Amino acid sequence: MDGSGKEVIPCRYLRAGPFSDGLALVCDGANEYFIDESGEIAFELDERYEYGQFENGRCEIRPWEEERHGYVNKKGELISPIMDDEPLFPEGLQVHDYDMGDSPCEWVNEKGDVVIVARDLDFYNGWDFRDRLASASHTKYGSYGFLDQRGQVVIPFIFTNVLPWADGMAPVSVDGKWGFIDLDMNSLIPCEYHYGLLSHPYFDEDGIMLVKKSFNKDEETREPIDFLYGAIDRCGREIIPVDYYGIAKIDGKIAVLDDLIDEEGDCYSGVRWFDVGKQEGDGYVYQFDCEGLPLKKVATLEGGLLRWGFLDAEGAEVVPCMYDDAMVRNGLIRVRKNGLWTFVKPSGEFLTPFLYQSAFSPVVGGMCAVQREGLWGFINEEGEEMVPCRYDAVTDFVEGRSMVLLEERYGFIAADGREVTPLIYDMAYPFSGGLAWVRKGAGVGSINKDGEEVIPCRFDRVGECSEGLVSVCLTSKKTKHYMFLDLDGNTVIDLDGMDLDAVSIFSEGLCGICKNFEWGFIDRSGKVVIPMTFHQPYFNLQVQFIHGLCLFRSPENWGLGAINTRGEIVIPAAYRRIDWQEDGRWAARVGEETHYYNNNGERL
């Protein structure tokens, strides 16, 4: 019926869906159809597919019980092929979880090469890439951030949750409330909204997002139980105040559920409509200072999308507001248009054409990693390609060396592009402490910065270098034989006969050793100085001492405590969390209380 109550389409269907974009799905018991607003049949449904609703002249269809989709027009004609929901390798990489849920992850390319390693299992809950960025969480911080296609952190791990990048904005949440940031971590929209009404909090083609806020909480759980609804644009303006009991966008208009008054003065719940078009801004909708530069990063709002540029100290446009995205790294401006990036000096001089798919990297040692046509290289601060874009993957220069991948083989290059090792390794990690871990065939070892295998690839396990020593392990069916070697490959400590399950790294002269899930510590002579009686000792995910203490867990109550370098329990295992603070104290939290200790374990 229409708004006056007149029946315009007779009641002759067993089922009838809502109208969307001028068509509604109906069933007469024998067949299903889409009808128009006059009741005429637009087309009969193909029983091989399930249908969604029409939007912008098209309707999504899916083969039954398949994860593929396509689109039909208002005549029922297929206007796009039936394909997988998401490409198997979006933007060339695919996230790989070791297990389901909160599990470590890494990213591989279409050849199966590991391009972003799990960093000792630190990355988890990773997403596939969008706009050359992927979100993930990190076990060290217990929170979320963003990485580029080399695994370098672009947005630090400081958020409760994040979602994939879109249109120069990232949805981020803090304590369950959502907002948006840009690449420079500027707050575009404060984190004060709950999840959008859609399946994820993104803006639509008009630059509008439906939002909600809580106004009551459960007295016991403190979780929100009541909400009010409204709509915001990309500037954060509430174009419809968050004052209503419900909201929906239908055919370009927004309907809200509100308290209305009838002619007799009685209050009732009814629908109020708002006309909205593509959102526009007035002048610069955002202005942010650029750290270390006499510039302001600015944006205008055009047709629901942000367009970025830069002003100088006098307010003159150095870079006009015409770019899809913008950021500043190490004194260089980067802007993106049509999916490609270029570099700009603070004076406004463009250093390169729009060539690069990825240009997030900081300038390290005068070099910046860039990606062109799917391959990686390095440019200098003048935009010159010092290392041609010819590698499948690269890392930043660490200790003067970059790890590179080409045709399923890893190696290392110097800053001048010279290959200091041949690309012969099946896997490798960047340099740390003068050595880099490498795998060749079934064995692992370590190389020095000259490319020499100081620890030959004949071991089953090689640890990272710490305090000049590297752990190695040879395993048999019955035992594990651990040793510690120096940077020349000489054996310094031999733990043969101890049949340990694991060892950690040296820190403050001690190294953790484990057997049957209980840990102790040895000194640099290999002598056991703390017996293996502690459960899960750690600091920053390593079994190690920091500032004279090492944390451990009680297997009885799972509480955290701390031991000193003599193995004495100086902080009882009674806390939920213990953190080292910059003021030189340990903060131990239990319930709502925080207790403080010094490095000797004395309570302050």
Taking the alpha carbons of the first and last residues, their distance comes to 74 Å
What is the gyration radius calculated from CA atoms?
Answer: 30 Å
Strand order of the largest sheet: 47-48-49-50-51-52-53
Q: Uncertain regions: pLDDT < 50 for 5+ in a row?
A: none
Structural class: mainly beta
How much strand? over 45%
User: What is the makeup of the main sheet?
Assistant: 7 strands, antiparallel
Q: Average pLDDT, to the nearest integer?
A: 87
Number of strands: 56
Q: What general form does the structure show?
A: globular
Count of individual helical segments: 0
Q: Percent helix among the residues?
A: under 10%
What would your notes on this structure say?
The strands form 15 sheets. Strands 47-48-49-50-51-52-53 form a 7-stranded antiparallel sheet, with no helix packed on it. A 4-stranded antiparallel sheet has the order 1-2-3-4, with no helix packed on it. A 4-stranded antiparallel sheet has the order 5-6-7-8, with no helix packed on it. The model has no long low-confidence stretch (mean pLDDT 87). It starts with 14 loop residues before the first strand and ends in a 7-residue tail after the last strand. Helices cover 0% and strands 51% of the residues. The chain is an all-beta fold and 604 residues long.
